[in-house]
Amino acid sequence: MESTIDLIEQRDPSLNAVVYKAYDEAREKAAALERRIMQGEPVGMLAGVPTLMKDLFAAKPGWPSTLGGIRALKDARGAAGVWSTYPLKMSGEDSLLLGQTNSPVYGFRGTTDNTFFGPTRNPFNLDFNAGGSSGGAAALVADGIVPVAGGTDGGGSIRIPAAWTNTYGFQPSIGRVPLKSRPNAFHPGPYLYEGPITRTVRDAA
After folding, report:
1. Dihedral angle at the C-alpha atoms of 67, 123, 96, 195, nearest 10 degrees?
2. Positions in the chain short of pLDDT 70
3. How far apart are CA 55 and CA 150, in angstroms?
4. Catalytic: 95?
């Protein structure tokens, strides 16, 4: 956990991929998980794997949700008991959530940029964008900071950044992964998919 946090602090100033950091929460969960492992208790299949969720239609109680950098939502927080699928399932398997990744407003661009957080840069060439709308997630995975990050896709938002950053993005078939989102007046379901962005096909599998 500490090495992942160190990597984010070293690399993210140039990438601009992380828009919310929950380091203290992640450290507490990592320590609790370590105690469970030391005591021989059962743990999830992704125990200790660091990850981040996308700041778009994602929801986690108490965490921000700006819908891709809408300045007016900077102080909005997730309602108690409301989770989207990616953070819920990853947490259920004892993966450790460190924060949220950058996205364009409403995910309506093939690049990751917004007026609130700014652009996410491609780790292979910082003069270029990481693609969108899951560009923050793809940049972190491509740069070797985390092995997996959560994305969403309605028109290429997993596939575009995966192609631009030499990562692997999985868009499930419609209905294969149930979509739960933060309550809002704009929701593109059932045409929005949650899926992982990883370094390899094996990791995604």
Report:
1. 60
2. 179-190
3. 10
4. no
